[in-house]
Specification:
1 helix; about 120 residues; single chain; Jelly Rolls; mainly beta; nine-stranded antiparallel beta sheet
């Protein structure tokens, strides 16, 4: 296999974004909208790409493991345990299965992600 087939850039070039939004019953405030550029999908439930969300706040519940690297914007992630973290460009973190809380986008946020379902 050639390097071109084994090295996949994580960017938006040539990838049509999927448009979406949180389920209406999860929205707490605003009118958040998502754009997702899935650039890799592998056997065993592994996904990677770029995700972008416009301002708003909604409930989140993770069944999967996710690595996130914030590229731009600012968001506040709050757990049901009361812990709150503001994330911005340059921040990288993992969200583990079982995490429940809220995601609030203060400024349109774009992240790179790797998800293991």
């Amino acid at each position: 296999m050639t390097l071109v087939r084994l090295l996949v850039p994580v960017d938006t070039f040539g990838v049509e974004p999927e448009e979406g939004a949180p389920a209406p019953d999860r929205v707490i405030s605003g009118d958040p909208r998502f754009r997702t550029w899935n650039v890799e999908e592998a056997e065993g439930g592994l996904y990677s790409g770029l995700w972008e969300a416009s301002p708003g706040k909604w409930r989140i519940e993770y069944d999967e493991w996710e690595f996130c690297h914030i590229l731009s914007g600012r968001s506040v992630i709050s757990g049901d345990d009361g812990e709150t973290r503001t994330v911005a460009a340059g921040d990288a973190f993992v969200i583990r299965p079982g995490f429940k809380g809220t995601w609030e986008v203060l400024e349109t946020t774009r992240k790179e992600y790797v998800i293991k379902a």
